[in-house]
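ok trying again, last paste got cut off:
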Amino acid sequence: MRFLWILLLLLATPAAAQPVGPNAIWYTIVAENGDVLGHASRESVAWRDGRELVDSSEIRLQEGAAPTRRIVERTVTRLDVNGRPVSINASVQTGSAWSRIEARIGADIAEIVRHASGERRTMRLALPAGVRFDGGEGLLAAWDPAAAPRLEFQNFNIGAQVVERVTIEALPGAAADAQGRIKALRKRYEGAELRAVARLLLDRDRRLIEIAQPMFGTSIATRLADRETALRPHRPYSLLRSAMMRSPFRMSDDAVRGHIRYRLTFRDGIEFPLPQTGEQRVTARPGETIVDICRLCGPGLATDPAALADALRPTLWMQSDDPRLRAIAAPIRRLPVNEARKMEMLLERARPYLLDIDFTGHFSALETLLNRSGDCTEAAVLLAALGRAAGIPTKVVSGVVYSRLRYHGVSNVFMPHSWVLAYVDGRWKSFDLALDTFDSSHVALTIGDGDTRSIMAASQLASLLRWEEIAEIRARPR
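nice, full thing came through this time. structure:
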């Protein structure tokens, strides 16, 4: 399963693999139980024609007897003399794998280039007037929550390569404490879809001193610290055990092969809509949501020509136009069999490229093809890209799945998971390369194109749900 999305949040927070100057601001990155993941820093470097903001982070992970893995991120934002960004370069090093995103910022367009092992891909993103590039940090110094309890703006997110809508709200009853600190909630949206939630702690000068982000099974905080504390040696962190949530109910194998109904409520009053798929039907009620999952329970995604065309286009993560992916899909595309059978055949063709399990990093379909390793997100992205290369509309679903058996020492748990929705034979149907089969314990939380943004969002949204009831629905005998 995918557990790296905790780390991907660091691309969107004040974030060391490279030396930084004596005036750098330092942070520690810690889990809810106090375990340290790593450290981060921010430095401002003056230039004759402007300045650079350098955000860096390093975390160390280890799972079982596997070697320790270092994940290093660095984002450099170049500002002109007026303080407006002219370029942003973000890089991620995960062991020997790497990727780099470069964005040149124009008046109304961002030219974005993503470099990774084996490929270079470009895109253009329209920038609306007044778009911000700092997550709203520059607005906080003059913010008076009593006069304006809510800030709202558009923000360019280099990690997700999107313009997002962001809101920052003072928490109810969160008047300044004795030290003048304020607690606030920041939400990030892509269109109407909630994509990230963070709790902010501001000092009396409205500077960010902590960002705490709920994650599946825990929360991760980036917390202001001194250099000595931030760089203090620590044991590598284990993500696997932290990214599981014990189920309040035990489900049998027979039950999950049939119809399951879930009654879910929301933590901290943060409500959001769950998606509907070909197998998942969602009924929203005040303060709760009912989710029914079975083979034909859901209405499916949109099937209009524009929606299907969008589910066929190549993306930064699913390079379905690449000759190497098309060569795998082409023989199956030409076969005189139905589309569901083609997806099953593509699943078998994709399996040899995922013989080695790797829980760190998030890689595109082409990177997965070259690396020949990954976990459920790589499996989903690769299968979805092959589907598109074969002319079958696909989307990547992220959410949770139930495991009754013992997994890394824990049983009866929900875990993060990703799979594929394909439009086959006139309806949307789920296919799961990582687990071989789809069942009614697959609860969808986000639908995207295999991008880190939608995958990361599923983990955060899962942490905001309470599992109140889980019931097996059986058909009445006739």
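cool. Confidence is low (pLDDT under 50) at residues 1-20. The first strand starts at residue 25 and ends at 31.
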